[in-house]
Amino acid sequence: MFQKIITRFPPEPNGFLHIGHAKSICLNFGIAQDYQGTCNLRFDDTNPAKEEQHYVDAIKDGISWLGYAWDKECYASDYFDQLYAWAVRLINEGHAYVDSQTPEEIAAQKGTPTSPGSASPYRNQDPKEALRLFEEMKAGKHQEGSYVLRFKGDMASSNMLLRDPILYRIMHKPHHRTKEAWCIYPMYDYAHPLEDALEGITHSLCSLEFQDNRELYDWVIENTAVTTRPRQYEFARLNLSYTVLSKRRLTELVQDQHVSGWDDPRMPTLAGLRRRGLPAAALRDFASRIGVTKSDSVVEMALLEHCVRDHLNKSALRRMAVLDPLKVVIENYPEEESEELEAVNNPESDADGTRMVPFGRELWIERADFMEDPPKKFFRLAPGREVRLRYAYYLTCTEVIKDSSGNVTELRCNYDPATKGGGSPDGRKVKATLHWVSAAHAVAAEVRLYENLFTAETPGAASGDMLDDINQDSLGILNNCQLEPALGETGTGDTVQFERQGYFAADPDSTPDRPVFNRTIGLRDTWAKVQKKEG
Ligand code: ATP
Ligand code: MG
Q: Are the C-beta atoms of 221 and 249 separated by less than 8 Å?
């Protein structure tokens, strides 16, 4: 019989989604799409101490941004009544008991993987007594930690998870959805398989750490008389170099203010990557390229960067922006005049057309595009040297103006009006093409440059503390950037290419007077490579 495929993505709303979750999302939603099935979003909200509505909202945002739509929006807390009823049934049938030992006593009886555990003194409790205590737990008569409901498993099992796992615990904490209705909460290992069954999940795809849980899930299902049982398939979690993908560690980075928030563009969260300017399509592409395996590995950050460049190269509009400006005055260009020159929006796509860029007597060029005494292989502007201004004219430097301490403050130049558009009528060759911005029309902006948040491939590998490997220079702020006017209108979320520099996205901190851009990723810098080689 044809069976419709139903998958689910089951996040705990105790943090923002990260790129590791994206792997799981693309897998679960992707499989449902491929087989005309559906995928549920199920919040595993069984621990009110750490969960918040604000995280629920962020998770929904992240999934939608990635380009997926869930069928049902479900919550573990929707099933609290049913889960409680099944727990009562387990008690009545002698499969569960209430233990009043301390957590330390319970831990000490667990045994080790090579030696069996020992039975709790409450293991053979009368089911009536167990039920009475469980009802009291629910009624709020007992303190946190004083009683737990345990499953009567197998204290000698080689699978430690089967040694009488805890099913319910007392927590006198309000829940973000059920508020004060409950003060006992089911454990994940109990709730999870039953939720899957209740939703008719056919394929439960989860990361490898749940391999041992499968046996426990099967026990829970068998003993609660649920009829549908999903098949569980495990896959390796994504690890990515130069970052951390654990909500506990990401929470620490946020709480201790090593970053500005969950959506800091240096964070590997979906919110951070989005704010940084990564296209969702590039992330989906990344997820499909890394594939799904059962072997643990660390994926190179360089692969993610490759996917991002690949997408942006085709989709991002080209614009001109000068990050570290040096003034150029064109002495033979008429004063008080300006003109509009045609510039191509994206050479990779005919559909994106052209725009007009203002040009005038005073320009900004990149400080690094000029050297007074250039070494061999530096082909950009230098005294007496001619270069091309992109989409504009040939330009020759005639004089260098300096301040009293010898810093170059301005270049005096001449242009050749016969080279309009950047071509030479007499076949004269120049070796460099520079980007520029007309000083009279420029929009001043702030640009934020990002490097990896960590200096080590595996943060914390050497010392055990990720903070020892944190990159102190992961954020650089440039305050005096000069943009071509079209960039003043870039919407938040649009990623553009600043010609010769890289890809940049307008940040939500932008104001109408002062745009703020985040560097998504640089272009490969051939000059840096040459310098390195000659180093
Ligand atoms: P963390 O360890 O970061 O707290 P988690 O697994 O506790 O992650 P959940 O909210 O439970 O976070 O994650 C929801 C789903 O996402 C889980 O089913 C898990 O398998 C999957 N997932 C989490 N991290 C990764 C990862 N790095 N790679 C692939 N899948 C992941
Ligand atoms: Mg989890």
A: no
Burial class of residue 60, CB neighbours in 10 A (0-12, 13-18, 19+): middle
Which amino acids are annotated catalytic? 12, 237, 247
For strands 394-402 and 408-416, give the pairing.
antiparallel
Among 466, 477, 462, CA closest to 516: 477
Question: Burial level of 500, CB count in 10 A (0-12/13-18/19+)?
Answer: middle
Counted residue by residue, the chain has a size of 535
Low-confidence ranges of the chain (pLDDT < 50): none
User: Tokens 């260009």 — which residue?
Assistant: 333
Contact 432, 500 (CB under 8 A): no
Model confidence over 222-236: pLDDT tens digits? 888 677 778 889 999
Atom 13 in ligand 1: residue holding the nearest Cα = 11
Side chain identity at residue 270, one-letter code? L
Q: Report the C-alpha dihedral over residues 193, 195, 199, 200, rounded to 10 degrees.
A: 10
pLDDT of the residue at 533: 67
The closest-lying atom of ligand 1 relative to the alpha carbon of residue 10 is 14
Q: For residue 237, which ligand has an atom nearest its CA?
A: 1
User: Which atom of ligand 1 has the smallest separation from the CA of 207?
Assistant: 20
323 exposure class (CB count in 10 Å sphere: 0-12, 13-18, 19+): buried
What is the C-alpha to C-alpha distance for residues 69 and 97, in angstroms, rounded to an integer? 41
**Contact (Cβ atoms closer than 8 angstroms) between residue 161 and residue 19:** no
Q: Whose C-alpha lies nearest to ligand 1, atom 16?
A: 21
Residue 28: DSSP 8-state: H
* CB neighbour list of residue 210: distance below 8 Å, 6 or more residues apart: 232, 234
| pLDDT, tens digit, 9 for 90 and up, residues 376-396 | 999 999 999 999 999 999 999
State residue 532's pLDDT score. 66
Buried b (16+ CB within 10 A) or exposed e, 46-55: bbbeebeeeb
The pair of structure tokens assigned to 420 is 């309009």
Predicted TM-score of the model (pTM)? 0.93
